[in-house]
Amino acid sequence: MGAINGKQFIERLNKLNSEIWYDGKMIEGKLSEHATFKGLIQSKATLYDLQGSQELKNKMTFLSPITGDSIGLSYLQPKTKEDLKSRRRMIEIWARSTCGMMGRSPDYMNTVIMSLASSAALLDGRENCFPEHILSLYELARENDLSFTHTFITPQVNRSQLFFELSKEPISAKIIDRNEQGLIIKGARLLATQGGITDEVLVYSAPGMLHSDDAFAFSIPSDTKGVKFICRESFVGGDSTFNHPLSSRFEEMDSMIVFDHVLVPWNRVFFYDNLEAARDFILQSSFHQQAIHQVLTRQIVKTEFILGVAELLVETINISEYHHIQEKLSEMIIGLETMKALLEKAEHDAEVDEWGYMRPSYLPLQVASTIFPKIYPRFCEIIQLISASGIVTLPTENDFASEIRGDLDQYLQAASMNAEERVKIFRLAWDLTMSSFGTRQTQYERYFFGDPIRLSSNLYKNYSKDKYVALVSKFINLN
Ligand SMILES: Cc1cc2nc3c(=O)[nH]c(=O)nc-3n(C[C@H](O)[C@H](O)[C@H](O)COP(=O)(O)OP(=O)(O)OC[C@H]3O[C@@H](n4cnc5c(N)ncnc54)[C@H](O)[C@@H]3O)c2cc1C
Questions:
Q1: Atom of ligand 1 at shortest range from CA of 154
Q2: Ligand 1 shell residues, CB under 6 Å
Q3: pTM over 0.85
Q4: What does the pLDDT look like over 346-358, one tens digit per residue?
Q5: Which residues of 125-152 are buried (b: 16+ CB within 10 A; e: fewer)?
Q6: Alpha carbon of 447 to ligand 1 centroid (Å)
């Protein structure tokens, strides 16, 4: 089969029979026609179509080592720096198509699956570990262009370091039985972006678990019996791309996943009951390096888009002469160029790992993933500050089609644009930074890769500081 197109993606998704709960009801009928999902599904279909476009095919796909079919390039296991750059160019094309707003365009999870397969040997010969199952899942996903969501966070019940879950009925998803057929899982995992609207769900535990019942990893089809996706309220403002330019296209939905005595067949289990393997799987595999390489590429495209929005706002109402406006936009430029330099460095310093795959250098990626959660909310604040009242003076598409159009044309005209164009750009600024869609984007960029506080803390703890201490010690003659 190889790389799918948009039509194949939609047909496969509509056939998937996942149990998705939205606003008190179980969703029935075609997902691609549901008001909450149709915009996103259409945008994803566009991404899949790009893979087959004659113009882009060489940049978007590579040839299957098994069938010779074209395969989505985010599944490519990089062996050279040129492979890494090819991956980046493919990621950029998809990110541009979504203005960087789709955190879970399929390349994110394809990259995760690729990285786990590339490090599967880490589990060779270890107790209760099945590296061959990771490799076969990777092959299945690569050859059929499967899409994934993942979930690894326990329910947010009690985050004290002294808390240990003792409830009779599991809260956090755990192994409650092991039988001839596989593992039985019961409990919940906190969050899965696009949960229910991907072919598969990858489940694993974040490092730090203390009990072997929590130490597992597996991937199962989203419509596996007993798996339930509970969605939050939708942030789609409506169908109109004039009124809701971003949420009508890119609202991804987040859901909690409940596992009710779910049987995970052995051939889908990567490991179980092995705390050390669970920790190493996340920390020593190339998961972080390859995933952040994808993330940083998307975030750069998103920052370019935001800078474009900011400059359009400035030009629209002609405020570029003010120094504080220049300073605010230069903050965005500095953020953008810093992120680009970090990506360049991560690729430049990449090295082949012990299993023969090219890993981007981790340090620049770690730095980038601690910077972006801080600068992204600031970019949104800058958009609001330069917009002032414009970002709330937002007549709708219907207003422009009504008899008050004359008033709108007269009083909402701008220095360099007519009223309708001016409102379009301000509506975009609002959807980007102030609508429920926009504020969720901010929360996403802060948290989706983990708590930024703990990411910074890890950076501090693992950074080699000794040589700098030695320099200072020598300067002032300390022993
Ligand atoms: C929009 C969005 C989409 C997401 N999508 C996914 C997804 O698809 N799949 C997935 O698995 N996860 C997803 N996540 C979850 C994400 O991984 C978590 O939000 C992140 O790891 C933080 O965990 P938490 O939300 O449980 O926060 P908590 O750990 O509950 O933290 C709450 C607060 O307490 C502080 N805190 C808690 N414990 C400590 C500690 N030990 N030390 C210092 N401070 C502490 C934190 O700094 C924070 O301020 C998503 C999150 C968001 C917001």
A1: 26
A2: 149-153, 156, 159, 161, 190-193, 254, 440, 443-444, 447-448, 450-451, 453-454
A3: yes
A4: 999 999 999 999 9
A5: eeebbbbebbeebbeebbbbbbbbbbbb
A6: 6
